[in-house]
Amino acid sequence: MIKHSVRYFNSKPVRAIWDSEESSWWYSATDLIDILVEPNSPKRYWNNVKVRNPELSPFCGQQKLLANDNKQYLSEVINENGIKLLINIIPSKYKKQVLDWINGSMDPIDEQSKRKAYQLYKTNLINDDEIGKTVSLQKIHAYLFEGLYEFAGKIRTRTISKGGFVFANGDYLPQTLSQIDRMPQSTFDEIVEKYVEMNIAHPFMEGNGRATRIWLDLIFIKELKKCIDWSSIDKKDYFDAMMVSPNDDTKIKEVLKSALTDDIDNRELFLKGIDTSYYYEEVE
Questions:
Q1: Each residue's pLDDT tens digit, 51-76
Q2: What are phi and psi of 53, to 5 degrees?
Q3: Which helix (H) or strand (E) holds 95?
Q4: Comparing C-alpha atoms, which of 196, 223, 219, 213 is closest to residue 272?
Q5: Annotated domain spans of the chain
Q6: How far apart are CA 106 and CA 248, in angstroms?
Q7: Cβ(82)–Cβ(101) under 8 Å?
Q8: Whether 87 contacts 97, CB under 8 Å
Q9: What superfamily does domain 117-280 belong to in CATH?
Q10: What is the pTM of this model?
């Protein structure tokens, strides 16, 4: 079985392919060179490195990778052991970051959850009549965090706060969520207003933002045949707009509308959006 994938490092795509016979992921060598060194010609740089360092050969090969035209071309690839050797050979300011990225140890919970989020693309997890309801958000949250948080998919009973803002009272949260379920969602403004209310409700102890942004995109896709290109929204702009949204949702509507796209079948857009969504939650 061959499985194609696209992973992102600092918003740059890295094409990958899974070979079940070898039980190994193979990554595009030129994509990796591009994120490690950022040369003018990643292909030429890779060829020079490979010639000068024959010890890389056992960890390299050729596989058909997807290109921008959605066709497969025979390409130079390198496995994870080869990447670990490569980052000790070439100069790069991203050595530790790339190693952590490959090992999935930048943040164990976030990295494991992100892998699950990648798999959400085109699944049948949510029934059409559940989109925009709390039950669909619970399904998304459970899918992302099952086995990582004991409260995955479970509505909180405690009252919580963040940055001085107190979210919906845990004692009355079921009633609040029921009211949100009944909110209309047929126009852009209605959908964003519903999203803002769900953010205020903050139904889970942790992981609300990541789950709710996916929930929002599902509503947009169902009702408007559009979604958000999250990678085009600056992190500070997003959080500044969300901070004031309980009292004034004008800014968040402007931010989201500027990133609205009808490219709803673009898998790379979805994956990049997941990367951006998880980046929003990183502590700086």
A1: 999 999 999 999 988 787 767 899 99
A2: -130, 75
A3: helix 95-103
A4: 213
A5: 2-106, 117-280
A6: 35
A7: no
A8: no
A9: Fido-like domain (1.10.3290.10)
A10: 0.65
Coil/strand/helix, residue 36: helix
Q: Record the tokens describing residue 250, joined without a space.
A: 């004008």
Q: What is the C-alpha separation between 121 and 239, in angstroms, rounded?
A: 25
DSSP string, 104-172: T-SSHHHHHHHHHHHTTTT-S-S-GGGTTSHHHHHHHHHHHHTTT-TTTTPPP-S--EETTEE-S-GGG
**Range name among 2-16, 17-31, 237-251 with the lowest pLDDT average:** 2-16
Reference 195, options 156, 7, 187, 68; nearest CA is 187
Task: Identify which of 199, 276, 283, 192 has the alpha carbon closest to the alpha carbon of residue 235.
Answer: 276
Angle at 175 between CA 148 and CA 277, to 5 degrees: 40
Bridge pairing between strands 2-9 and 24-28: unpaired
